[in-house]
Amino acid sequence: xSARVLMYTTAVCPYCTRAKQLLAARGVTEIEEVRVDLxxxxxxxxxxxxxxxxxxxIFIGETHVGGSDxxxxxxxxxxxxxxxxx
Length: 86
What we know:
Number of strands: 4
Structural class: alpha+beta
Number of domains: 1
Largest sheet: 4 strands, mixed
CATH class: Alpha Beta
């Protein structure tokens, strides 16, 4: 997989874990993880970029995928793999 994956997360987030598991199952070996619970400025950045306050917030390349449910819906529609391939 060639597309960069960026995920805003917190330490105790089952949806973050679920999203990471799906990405790993689809061949993603590296996720740039931003822990917004440790860095409030990065939470502000996340909210500005996504207009959302919940985690995870996932970007694949320049595309904002959304959260875990959005990621699973993208996969179910057959659109996740092409996005990951860039």
